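Here is an idea for our session: we take a single protein and study its fold together. To get us started, please write out a protein record for me. Once you have written the record down, we can walk along the chain together.
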Amino acid sequence: MRISFERTGGFAGISRKKTVDTANIPANEADQLPRLVEAADFFNLPEKITASTTQPDRFQYKLTVEEEGREHTVTVSEAALPGTLRPLIEWLQQK
């Protein structure tokens, strides 16, 4: 499994990008990642998740998950972040 993660926005407007591949991280972390993706029901999330009102200086996240020949991208604003997706976002920010 491979995840490309990008966080944009915030007060300074800084963009942070990273890619995490389960083939290149320790086994205990590689085991956690698929569980977080499954718990988020990631492959069934819509491509865009936005809040009804825009808020300045909030982050926006873009995640692309590649697994076993399938790929899905989700872009979500911080204000509309589903609770099921939060653990995955937090895990990726710590890496």
Summary: DSSP finds two helices and five strands in the chain.
